[in-house]
Structures are given as C-alpha cells and as structure tokens.
Design goal:
binds adenosine-5'-triphosphate; 33% helix; 7 helices; binds magnesium ion; alpha/beta
Length: 229
C-alpha cells in the first residue's frame, strides 16, 4: 500500500500579536492511497488549520508532515508551491471563473502548468464526462446550477491527476438533495477510480458515507474511527 500522508506530533501555533494560539496540539495519523477520510469537529477545533498543512498551504510549527514521503516542514516557499500541485482542492464556494465555460475552468490548471492546448482540452473534456457533465461542457459557469458548479470544481481538481482530493465543506453551499448527489459522485470516484479523498464537513450524514472519520476537539485528534458502511 502507498502512504499518501503521514503526520507525526504535528502542531501549529499562531501568534496573535504576543499571544500564542495553539490551533493544533500534536496530531498523529497516516492516510493510505485509496482512503476516504472525513475530518469532523466543532468550530475552532483546528480542522482548517490541519487542512492548510495537508494542502501544503502552510508549514507546521513542530512535528513532521510527509506528503508522498516529502516533509513539508523543511520546504522553501517554492518547494511548498511545488508540493501543492499534488493536491486537488475543492472549496465550499466553488471558486469558478463565471465568464469561462465549464471546459475553460477545468483547463485552467493545465494552462498554468503549460500543457499544450489540444491535450488540455482532451483531458478537461474527459474529466467533465467522468463527473457527469458531458452535456454541460460549453455552458458558462454562471449558467450552471450549484450542484453542477461543484462538479466542475471537482473536475478542475482532478484534471492534474493529484495525489489526493482535499475538500473543505464541499456540500456546505448545496441543498440536501444536491449535496447527497455530489457525495454519490465523490464516493464513486473513490471506489471506482481509487481517488484518495480527505473531506472536512459538519454534516454527520455525509461523514457516514465515507470510510473513516478523524474527530478533532480543541486542537487534538480525539478519535480515528472506521465507519460502518
Ligand atoms: N491565522 C490565525 N491566527 C491566529 N489564530 C488563528 C488563525 N487561524 C485560526 N486561528 C485559531 O485557531 C483555532 C483553530 O481554528 P480553525 O480555523 O483551524 O478551526 P476550524 O475547526 O476550521 O473551525 P470552523 O469549523 O469554524 O471552520 C481557532 O481558535 C482560531 O481562532
Ligand atoms: Mg474551518
């Protein structure tokens, strides 16, 4: 089995002026390729702090975090940016460019990576089909429903073949029916395409659909449970 993430005594302390805020107080966990892990916990428990570290958006204060064997605590800014290209991000508020059509949004990371036009259009079209949007490829994102927009965001995250998908409340802005259908899609990507998924949610029903739950409280990982399916 391939290990995607490995955290050892991971901590993050923010300085608020002179006052240290211990947002993460020593987390240990391992995520293997193909897992679907939910991070659950009350507001302020450190979920986003942990997500920022896992996504190579920030460095830990102490401890180590290996992303595919690379310790992010030792990386320069440029190397951290490089590590970030291994991560597919999906946020609560889609963050699409409204004037671009679906394929234009999905192509964007490949444009930035310098992939030639023909190849990036083919890859973008393929992932849009895989998220069930084959008939919406040329719709502007402003012409799509919330659920369709989030599928475009998932396609955009997948198009660079990331090591894992990192999702922060991906269903937080969707009604319950659309949310359930988005989770169906992500579960299918996980089970059939073996995409490793890590998701922060407040929604217990969504958490139950995933294979494993990490529970956070006051900066600690207080439980690591296998979900009965
Ligand atoms: N940049 C920062 N500077 C100072 N303190 C911070 C900073 N970011 C977060 N914190 C503090 O760290 C703690 C954990 O915050 P975090 O954002 O990780 O919580 P969360 O679990 O994501 O909460 P929510 O569910 O509300 O999004 C909180 O007490 C928060 O106030
Ligand atoms: Mg948060």
């Amino acid at each position: 089995m391939t290990t995607v993430l490995e955290a050892q005594n991971l901590t993050k302390t923010y300085m608020l002026g002179q006052v240290p805020v211990k947002a993460l107080r020593g987390a240990d966990f391992v995520v293997e390729q193909g897992e679907f892990v939910t991070i659950l916990g009350p507001s302020g428990s450190g979920k986003s702090t942990l997500l920022n570290l896992i996504g190579a958006l920030d460095r830990p204060t102490s401890g180590s975090l290996l992303i595919e064997g690379i310790d992010v605590s030792e990386l320069s800014d440029n190397e951290l940016a490089e590590a970030r290209t291994k991560v597919g991000f999906v946020f609560q508020f889609f963050n699409l460019i409204p004037r671009l059509n679906a394929i234009g949004n999905v192509e964007l990371p490949l444009v930035i990576a310098g992939v030639p036009k023909k190849e990036r259009q083919e890859r973008a079209r393929e992932v849009l089909i895989s998220v069930g949007l084959g008939d919406r490829i040329h719709h502007k994102s402003s012409e799509l429903s919330g659920g369709e927009r989030q599928r475009v965001a998932v396609a955009r995250a997948l198009v660079s073949n990331p090591s894992f998908l990192l999702m922060d409340e991906p269903t937080g802005n969707l009604d319950s029916v659309t949310a359930a259908s988005l989770i169906d899609l992500i579960v299918e990507l996980n089970e059939e395409k073996k995409v490793t998924c890590i998701m922060v949610t407040h929604d217990l029903e969504m958490a139950k659909r995933t294979k494993r739950t990490l529970r956070m409280k006051d900066g600690h990982l207080v439980a690591d449970e296998v979900n009965g399916q």
